[in-house]
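Late entry, written up from scratch paper. The run itself happened at the end of the previous shift, but nothing got recorded in the book at the time, so transcribing now.
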Amino acid sequence: MATFADLPDSVLLEIFSYLPVRDRIRISRVCHRWKRLVDDRWLWRHVDLTLYTMRPKVMWHLLRRYMASRLHSLRMGGYLFSGSQAPQLSPALMRALGQKCPNLKRLCLHVANLSMVPITSLPCTLRTLELHSCEISMAWLLKEQDPTVLPLLECIVLDRVPAFRDEHLQGLTRFRALRSLVLGGTYRVTETGLDMGLQELSYLQRLEVLGCTLSADSTLLAISRHLRDVRKIRLTVRGLSAPGLSVLEGMPALESLCLLGPLITPEMPSPREILSSCLTMPKLRVLELQGLGWEGQEAERILSKGLPHCMVIVRACPKESMDWWM
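Output as recorded:
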């Protein structure tokens, strides 16, 4: 029977990649071979630190000893609700990430207090920035800030960032490389603010609006007015009607449309009305309906048969998405 010692390095590295960071470091003490593998650059391309309340000293050690130029993506927790004695993210740590991790492309921050961390301290190499349940200062994303900050940023995810409002949305125009925007639970963004913001973000290719107070009809209207080149739309169906969906008819570049429930109202378009609108979208290749209760029903058959050129996905809402409607 084969043992761990018989496995090639590539297989062991794949196994080790599923281990939490703390366990990776512990197994480096097993033998010289495992220590060499734990030091392999490939193993430290993607690091998730959200499982730990980590002291600054330990974080600095990881940065110097293991991550450095190897790191491509990093997930970190900020312990916003852990009390005043919990370690917090600092401008010095953010600047060190930029200096020591020149290949860092994706940074995901969870439950972090960033009110004292200027956006100018973030690594300039970032292409994706995700903020989940974070506090930011009012000045973070305003137009008046330095336009040279994060020059490569292509995607920004704002998930339950309570301070984010209309002025911040308009301020995103300073990121000229931005192509993807995800707004989740950003309840301070108004319909007027969304319309004005998208007018200046006309170059977006992907937009997701999830769990916000905005109606789906008003969101789609703003998209149809200003985002003629958008390729992917994903939004909750709150306030969606057949006339609201029809404003997307003829969208020239739209390739993927995802509608998420379960807040279905009497005004919700029927499967045949959805089919009618989708048939006018020349490049549509993916239609996804989540949490509408249509899986295995006549609605799924109508859409699949009527859109033979599309991948039609009708399914229940995944558990990790349910909190948008709680």
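The CA atoms of residues 120 and 149 lie 6 Å apart.
(Scratch paper discarded after transcription.)
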